[in-house]
Design brief:
Blueprint (H helix, E strand, L loop, with lengths): L13 H5 L2 E9 L1 E3 L8 E4 L6 H9 L3 E5 L8 E2 L2 E2 H6 L9 E14 L2 E8 L5 H11 L4 E11 L2 E2 L6 H6 L5 H4 L11 E4 L2 H8 L4 E2 L6 E7 L2 E8 L4 E7 L6 H4 L1
Parallel strand pairs: 11-13
Antiparallel strand pairs: 1-8, 1-9, 2-3, 4-7, 5-6, 7-8, 9-10, 12-15, 13-14, 14-15
Length: about 250
């Protein structure tokens, strides 16, 4: 699944990058590749001498916050160049482990040498690296034979359409397929505001927050999403990302 943002929704695209992701991964045990996926060259072959119970037990060790060494073939940068550029040139560069979070990891199917895993994780998680680490944890080796992203934050496959369905749609029908930009920030609590308040915020002017607790909110007015705001400790609402044009008094009446 690949979420696409258009127009005003691009203002809130960062929320997608920060959101939790969910994947369904086909992990092929017994074979390691140069890239960690099926496109790489085979670099090692290992025995598969573990049972499903061993796999279940090993997966428990990956739950929570773990450290990962990013793969050689990745888009991370070192001295202005992508890791994969160095890897293709046969140049080894220093790679630093990073903390990621694995919220859930479950075996959907087990038919040796293939395991289908459903994985919920934080941004920045490399599923290829996770598969390789799981392979070592069960005394074997592994790579990703197939990978499907099934959710990004609150966006799921149930809300998505296929590329074929999009191509078959009339141009005039495409707008009806788009979700509201508010969908991207549903994790934030709503804050109802007057039309006048929204206009002030849209022009960059802070507004008194009343008794609203400090924090970030999705601002709504006259039944419409207006943008994201932050209430500071000084009791002011400050704009973060506001939609344009704002809701007007005429529209509210």
């Amino acid at each position: 699944m690949l979420p696409l943002c258009f127009g005003e929704a691009t203002k809130f695209a960062q929320a997608l990058l920060d959101e939790r992701k969910e994947y369904v991964a086909d992990v092929r045990f017994g074979v390691a590749t140069s890239t960690g996926d099926a496109e790489g060259d085979i670099v090692e072959e290992c025995a598969i001498a573990f049972a499903r119970t061993d796999l279940d037990e090993a997966l428990k060790g990956f739950l929570g916050t773990i450290r990962q060494l990013p793969p050689r073939y990745s888009a991370l940068k070192h001295k202005g160049r992508n890791y994969y550029e160095y890897a293709r040139a046969g140049i080894e560069i220093p790679r630093v482990e990073r903390e990621v979070r694995i919220d859930a990891i479950d075996v959907v199917d087990w038919a040796p040498p293939l395991a289908v895993l459903r994985i919920g994780c934080s941004k920045g998680t490399y599923i290829r690296t996770l598969a390789e680490d799981i392979g070592r944890a069960v005394g074997s080796c592994a790579h990703i034979a197939g990978l499907r992203r099934t959710a990004v934050g609150e966006l799921t496959l149930a809300q998505a359409i296929t590329l074929a369905e999009l191509e078959a749609s009339e141009y005039s029908e495409c707008d009806a397929l788009l979700l509201s930009p508010e969908t991207l920030v549903m994790a934030l609590l709503p804050l109802e505001a007057s039309v006048e308040t929204v206009i002030a915020l849209t022009h960059g002017r802070p507004v008194l927050a009343g008794d609203t607790a400090p924090g970030r909110y999705r601002c709504r007015s006259a039944g419409r999403f207006a943008g994201t705001v932050e209430v500071d400790c000084g009791g002011l609402i400050r704009p973060l990302r506001m939609l344009r044009p704002p809701v007007t008094p005429a529209e509210a009446s």
